[in-house]
UniProtKB/TrEMBL annotation:
Location in or out of the cell: Cell membrane
Keywords in alphabetical order: Membrane, Transmembrane, Transmembrane helix
Membrane topology reported for the UniProt record: Multi-pass membrane protein
Protein's name according to its UniProt entry: MFS transporter
Assigned GO CC terms: plasma membrane
Organism: Amycolatopsis acidicola
Single GO term (MF): transmembrane transporter activity
Keyword Membrane included in the entry's annotation: yes
């Protein structure tokens, strides 16, 4: 039995709370995205240049599999945490500290196996942190405010990518300096949120392993909206992961850009500007209209258009145009899908666990993307086919959100 956290929150959160959780999520995205976009590809290319694509796919897929397990487990245990700090903050603090330490260790790795093991541990810690952060929104933010809050939080993904890529390519371009800088930044950005009041529980049911693990199965028959939301998210995140995994290699091998690392940074900035234009505005509009689905469907279709641009016109001008279109679409998607997700959770008492299950869609996409993208590139040597597949998956994500009934 839990107390004080079952009811839906009614009091709106203030600007300070939104700023602090946004900073913490920004730190999370910095250490998730910057290594994948720059540090990992460059590190693996130095270790194994002849098999860089397959080695990168192996490392990212193995870490994503760990994430698939870590996300729901961390969420479920945070639901049961009775610490004085609250039930979410111990996981946020612990995850950020472990991740920071492991990133420093990863900087010294000289083998693909060492990189893979470190990144697997880092991903587990990142998911523990993210479980606490994402569950804090439905714990403390009323439904009528979740669109705009999700809009601000949604900005942190692209901002984290810009900040991280800027740091590791322009400010501290060395491998060791890059990893250590990201580790320090993660802790610094997370600490302010740990000063906010967290939800607490004073009692909990005894842990029965059979019942505990059975709770991870959320019946699509009993909760169909939850199932449709999860599948739709998987499709969109998979399309995005396929499109971005080999972006550095795409710019180097297909576009023949002289400095592909700089190209990644430029595209990231363009993409971020698009998200800044649409994220908060669409969240506010969605809150006022009370509608979520039309925004998600439209955004998913726009994301597919960006993939088609890359497939049809593999050039630097097309890459810039695609980044702008993708940013506009993903800004809407990130804000509104996050709000929609919180409205299809089966039980208030299990928010952490249920959001962890839904976040498997994010991590599963990271596991599947290397298999799909790596297979396509290895067999067909065609980035055109790669981006056509990504576009088709994004369109499927748009269709899959339509059957949801409990959210307009």
């Amino acid at each position: 039995m839990t107390t004080g956290v079952v009811a839906e929150p009614d009091s709106p959160v203030g600007g300070g709370w939104i700023a602090r959780i946004s900073l913490a999520v920004l730190g999370f995205w910095v250490v998730v995205l910057a290594p994948v976009q720059v540090l990992l590809p460059v590190q693996i290319e130095r270790i194994d240049p002849a098999h860089k694509e397959s080695s990168l796919a192996l490392v990212t897929a193995a870490a994503a599999i760990v994430s698939v397990l870590a996300a729901p487990l961390a969420g479920a245990f945070s639901d049961r945490t009775t610490a004085r700090l609250g039930r979410r903050q111990p996981w946020i603090l612990g995850g950020s500290l472990v991740c920071a330490v492991v990133l420093c260790v990863q900087a010294a790795q000289g083998s693909v196996l060492g990189v893979a093991l470190c990144w697997m541990v880092a991903q587990a810690a990142q998911n523990a942190m993210f479980a606490g952060l994402t569950a804090s929104v439905p714990d403390q933010v009323p439904v009528r405010q979740r669109g705009v809050v999700s809009g601000f939080v949604g900005l942190t993904g692209p901002l984290g990518l810009v900040l991280g890529v800027l740091l590791v390519t322009q400010v501290v371009p060395g491998q060791t300096a890059g990893y250590v800088t990201l580790a320090v930044l993660l802790v610094v950005l997370t600490l302010p949120f740990l000063t906010t009041k967290d939800t607490r529980i004073s009692e909990r049911e005894p842990l029965r392993l059979k019942r505990f693990f059975a709770g991870f199965w959320i019946s699509p028959r009993r909760y169909p909206d939850f199932a449709w939301a999860a599948i739709s998210r998987l499709a969109i995140q998979l399309a995005n992961a396929i499109a971005t995994l080999y972006l550095l290699y795409f710019l180097r091998d297909a576009v023949h850009l002289g400095k592909p690392e700089d190209g990644v940074f430029v595209l990231t900035v363009v993409y971020t500007v698009g998200i800044l234009v649409t994220s908060v505005l669409s969240g506010r509009w969605s809150d006022r209209s009370g509608r979520r689905k039309p925004f998600v469907v439209t955004a998913s279709a726009v994301i597919a258009v960006a993939m088609l641009i890359l497939a049809i016109w593999p050039s630097w001008p097309a890459a810039i145009a695609a980044a702008a279109v993708l940013g506009l679409g993903f800004g809407v998607y990130a804000a509104i899908d996050a709000a929609l997700i919180t409205q299809v959770l089966p039980k208030a008492t299990d928010r952490g666990k249920d959001l962890g299950v839904l976040n498997v869609a994010n991590t599963a996409s990271q596991a599947l993307a290397p298999l799909i993208a790596g297979g396509l590139i290895s067999l067909l040597h065609s980035y055109t086919v790669l981006y056509l597949v990504a576009a088709a998956i994004a369109l499927a994500g748009a269709v899959l959100v339509l059957p949801i009934r409990s959210v307009r």
